[in-house]
Amino acid sequence: MAPISDRKWGSFYRQLNKNTVIWAIHKTSGEDLSGIWRLIKPTKYENITCAKGMYAKRELCIIDKHPKTTKTCLLVFFILLHHGVFAQYCTPNNRFTEAAVFTEAQVDSAVNVVYGSALDYAATNVDLKLNIYYPSPSIETLSARPLIVLMHGGMFMNGDKSNLTSACMEFAKRGYVAATIEYRLGWGFVPTCQLVTPEVVISSNRAIYRAIQDLHASVRFLVHNAAQFSIDTAWIFVGGVSAGAFATADMAFITADEFALRWPYCNDPQFGVPLGYINTNGNALTDTFTLKGLFHNWGSVVDIDYIHPSTAIPMIGFAGELDEISPIDSGFFESCLRYDLMFGTRAIFQRLDNFGVCSEVNIKPNAGHGVYNSTYEQGIFRIGKASCFFKSLFCGTCASLYTTDSIPPSCSLITTTKNLLPKASLQLSPNPSNGQLTVISNAPQGSLMKVYTLLGELLYCEPLNSAAQELHLCHLPGGVYIVEVNDQRTCLILTN
Questions:
Q1: Which of 7, 47, 265, 338 is 20 to 30 A distant from 410 in Cα terms?
Q2: Is domain 104-403 given the CATH code 3.40.50.1820 in the classification?
Q3: For residue range 50-74, what is the model confidence (pLDDT) as tens digits?
């Protein structure tokens, strides 16, 4: 665990024994809040709250004058330390939310960038290209940005990277670097289920394998050239629609060794030109990466059992409940039992939820394949939801959600009181905050709004004059605080 002082906290620790480290923080009486803090001996106090950290054999103990709220804040505090909430992407503004912060004219692009080459379905060597979009360096304030790589759909037979140009533009307008890639297409598709043979199934799976190889090669290329496009390689997301969602989910959850065992015919000459390993084909680059999340649109995964704790990552997904191309739970492509069984968006969500991995699914009842995609506004809906989901990962505030209500995304700064109530009686937005935030409460006007340290020291008090009232705490140092209105309390994270 990094010393708390590195995050503008005064800090001390005492090695009680080789297995336990107690962290205690307390303000020296009469000192300024930005001053020095002193070590408190826990044995002198009756109410001590301790929480285990994300690192082995360490606990944090804090004097507990608000027991229930303090325990919640401690949990949030450790989540924030683990996920790096004080990083630059948990911004106290509209960046990385459903709201665009750049115009289309402020987005730069590079098109038909060659990221590799490989043998296609016809055994012809072809160049593999991508288009990439990002906020213009002339106005951009960040030196690096999160990356999302997108794959188009088309049954691994057709489609083009340009199909997702608009999606990439919208992500870039929200502050991301976004790339749409082309990948090798083609397999022995037949028009009816009666014509499907084992050879056709093998051909389809080899097409999926090639697509995943190309996806892997494109991400390696972008990691290798991160400086050129101002990419933060610590925050990489992948996603796609239909076949593209299928390929990105498979790459996210299934290892190269598992693919080699599942589909040995991908490298057996009797079934065609050997394709090579899943993560080495397409270019000679050896850059590694770790995915942080999925943008999954009406796709599937080849087997739910490949998702286990070591490969599970957060996902935001969209699917129609009656989808017959990518069944929402499990099923077969176009209901043809001759194809391999696959597992859809809801099955993936439930698996991730069982492992405690934060995920969100938006299910449209009585709808089939390609939901939320028939109009420009529906595409914006999905991109806005994904942006808010990713920002919750940046901030360590992600909470799993299963919804069928098409709830519009709303994680940008709140500027009006419309539709705020009734909700939870006390909310803070944004949270984490740089000190400028809005307190949302349905408490009666005139109620006292108070801010405490975790130790119960009152720092701020003023009457509540509206349902959405601005609060300015820029003078306080970064840390975890308690905000109280009447008998309702919640914790506030300041990133000052």
A1: 7
A2: yes
A3: 443 332 233 344 444 444 555 555 5
Which range among 86-100, 141-155, 264-278, 377-391 shows the weakest confidence by mean pLDDT? 86-100
Tell the residue number behind the tokens 């307390």, with chain if given.
Answer: 26
Q: 211 with 183: CB under 8 angstroms?
A: yes
CA distances from 361 to 256, 296, 318, 480 (A): 27, 9, 6, 30
Is 453's pLDDT higher than 90?
no
* Phi/psi of residue 372, nearest 5 degrees: 55, 40
Edge-to-edge strand list for the sheet holding 401-403: 107-119, 125-135, 177-181, 145-151, 231-241, 291-297, 315-320, 359-364, 401-403
Asked if 151 and 211 count as a contact pair (C-beta separation under 8 A), the reply is yes
The domain ranges of the chain are 4-83, 104-403, 426-494
CA distance 272 to 10: 64
Burial class (CB in 10 A: 0-12, 13-18, 19+), 284: exposed
Pair of tokens at residue 80: 């924030």
C-alpha–C-alpha distance, residues 222 and 231, integer Å: 8
The Cα 482–Cα 66 span in angstroms is 9
- Prior bond to 135 cis, omega within 30? no
Q: CA torsion angle for 483, 489, 491, 496 (degrees, to 10)?
A: -10
User: What fold is seen in the domain 426-494?
Assistant: Immunoglobulin-like (2.60.40)
Beta 359-364 vs 231-241: how paired, if at all? unpaired
Is 29 a residue whose pLDDT tops 50? Answer: no
**Rounded to 5°, angle at Cα 338 from 337 and 344:** 55
**Interatomic CA distance for residues 416 and 420, integer angstroms:** 8
**Band of pLDDT at residue 166, cut at 50, 70 and 90:** very high
pLDDT digits (tens, 9 = 90+) for 91-109: 778 899 999 999 999 999 9
What's the rounded Cα separation, in Å, for the pair 327 and 339? Answer: 13
- Return d(Cα 366, Cα 309) in angstroms, integer: 32
Q: Confirm whether pTM is higher than 0.85.
A: no
**Chain mean pLDDT for the chain:** 82
